Amino acid sequence: MKKTTPSPHIFWLALALGWLFDWFFYGNPLGISLLLFVGLALAVLAAGGGLERVRVAGCNLWLWLPLLFFAGMAFVRANPFLTTMNVLAVLILLSYAAFYFANGRLSTLTLTHAAVLPLRVVGLAAAQAGPVAQASGVTGIWRQKGRRNLAPILRGGLLAFPVIVVFTILLTSADQVFADYVEDFFQLEFLEDVVEWVWRGLLILGVAWLAAGGIALALTRRDEDEGALDRLMAAIPRSLSIGFVETAVILTLVDLLFLAFTAVQFTYLFGGRTAVEEAGYTYSEYARRGFFELVAVAVLSLSLSIFLNWLARRETKRQLGWFNGLVSLLVGLVGVMLASALQRMRLYESAFGYTELRLIVFVFLGWLAVTLVWFLLTLWTRPDRFVIGAMLAAMGFLATMNLINPDALIVGRNLARYRATNDLDVTYLITLSDDAVPGLVRALTLTANDQQQLIRPECNYYYRYDRAGAPEECLGIPSEILSDELNGRFTQMKEDEAWRQWQSFHFSRWRSFALLSRLFRA
Fold first, then answer.
1. Between the CA atoms of 498, 502, 508 and 510, what dihedral angle is there, to the nearest 10 degrees?
2. What is the spatial distance between Cα 149 and Cα 262, in angstroms, rounded to a whole number?
3. CB within 8 Å of 19: residues ≥ 6 apart
4. Which of 289, 370, 467, 488 is 20 to 30 A from 331, alpha carbon to alpha carbon?
5. Three-state SS for 395?
6. Where in 335-491 does DSSP place strands (E)?
7. Per-residue DSSP letters for 127-186?
8. How far is the CA of 459 from the CAs of 163, 334, 346, in angstroms?
9. pLDDT per residue as tens, the chain (522 positions)
10. Is 345 left (phi over 0), alpha (psi -120 to 50) or beta?
11. Helix/strand/coil for 454
């Protein structure tokens, strides 16, 4: 890795980022601040590149698009799962953007390097921030003047202490108002503010330190270097590899097991109700089980294929062909399992309605299928390209979840099911985020004439009543439960001022507040 002397301006740019981090995020709910901060961080990175005359690696610039997209979706979506995943994606992609800013090709990323790179970037940034601070002249000024000036101040303070004590006693005796001020001072309530400002100062400096090191890493990393973990992982198959025969036995037995399961699926699940009922089951009972188990099998199968592809010895072209063929058969059979899981999911939802977990796994299933196809293609052509495709599939999963707006979709689908079955889990729907508020307002109108008694959420949470044994005060009709929850949400938003700060401006929260304002002030 070629080292260069960082520009003194980088430290001050990083310090500005630290101050902006505090201004945007400290004490403020997440909103448009994340998008603004990420945009400014990329601008600072580009400005640092201009100061250092470093050419940006154009082949990696596409990474900035998903980075800005996920930062923007944190401003649009209020769903807690999506917010967490969007913030996590932003942090990971920022580390990738810094590492591959000026050199390297993201498309050649290995699996182990992809997994540890964010932590590696944090460690390298923390280490490289010192030279940046030194180049800025801050540490030199402290060494030259700090110690020389600090000692006289401390000596003067110690000498002044007894004098200040005597004068304070006399002045408090002379004036009662002044005495009250002195008494208030020694109650030390101001220390709470001092502690907060010290903490915020440390936060600013910590963010600035990592930002300075991250910028330095992005600008000074010239040569593509293989990490120690990559070298270790590459050396393991040479000493602990599995022979081709053992590998073939594993894959053959797993393929036979999956073939047997696939035969059952075509005979019963895909074959219709008659075959299932002849076996002694109802079709709904048979199909509603196993969705999550099949998804787990698909994930484990992909992991097994990757593991064997890394560890198995293939010494001839014939062995390579047999290995690829057995793995391809495994992937094909897993595809049938994913189709079976999809069919079971449809029956899950028709029987019990939509929930966030079912929707997440359903979308994950689709992108897992894409990953399996990509693995199959790279297995026969370019195995080194699998990781970048898997990364894009992970981004695709999160992007899909953001674009479909899960909470709004869940409410909409459950309301459609309610029109058909008159069955609506109001207790679950009111737990959804502000993304669901437009749908919940529609549900309030739709359930206006529904008189069925449901257990109120607070009673269901604390006592777990069934509907027949619940006391009268724990029962309510759907429209009452919806109205109480929406009114409570509106009251809480009115009383909480933090979300109204411009740094916390959030599309979903403001839209929800506007809808609820019209609903409860009408």
1. 80
2. 80
3. 204, 208
4. 289
5. helix
6. 454-455, 475-476
7. HHHHHHHHHHTHHHHIIIIIHHHHHHHHHHHHHHHHHHHHHHHHHHHH-HHHHHHHHHHH
8. 65, 44, 31
9. 444 556 677 888 888 999 999 999 998 899 999 999 999 999 998 888 887 788 888 889 999 999 999 999 999 999 999 999 999 999 999 999 999 998 888 888 888 888 888 998 998 888 888 887 776 665 555 455 555 666 676 666 777 767 777 777 777 777 777 777 767 666 655 555 667 788 888 888 899 889 988 888 888 876 555 566 566 666 666 566 788 888 899 999 999 998 888 887 776 555 555 555 555 555 555 555 667 778 888 889 989 988 888 888 888 888 889 999 999 999 999 988 888 777 777 777 777 778 888 888 889 989 999 999 999 999 999 888 899 999 999 999 999 999 999 999 999 999 998 988 888 888 889 999 999 999 999 999 999 888 887 777 777 655 555 555 567 777 788 888 899 899 989 999 988 888 888 889 999 999 999 999 998 875
10. alpha
11. strand
Strand 454-455 to strand 475-476: parallel, antiparallel, or no bridges (unpaired)? Answer: antiparallel
Rounded Cα–Cα distance for residues 242 and 240 (Å):
7
For residue 242, the 8-state DSSP code is B
Q: What's the CA gap between 289 and 351, in Å, rounded? A: 12
Q: Among all chains, which residue has been given the structure tokens 């076996």? A: 279
| Strand ranges in 141-297 using DSSP code E only, listed in sequence order | none
Contact yes or no for 104/60 (Cβ under 8 A): yes
- Which residues touch 414 (CB under 8 Å, ≥6 apart)? 353, 354, 424, 425, 429
Contact 207, 17 (CB under 8 A): yes
Residue among 68, 118, 36, 57 nearest 395 (CA): 68
Pair 157, 149: CB distance under 8 Å? no
How many other C-beta atoms can be found within 10 angstroms of the C-beta atom of residue 324? 16
Phi first, then psi, for residue 470 (nearest 5°) are: -75, 140
Tokens linked to 131:
């030279």
Distance CA 198, CA 450 (A): 57
d(CA 309, CA 125): 34
For residue 364, give both structure tokens: 């994950």
The set of residues, in sequence order, having a beta carbon less than 8 Å from that of 485 and lying 6+ positions away, is: 430, 440, 457
Relative orientation angle of helices 317-352 and 244-264, to the nearest 10 degrees: 30
Angle at 226 between CA 222 and CA 232, to 5 degrees: 165
CA distance 364 to 294: 12
Token couple for 468: 């027949």
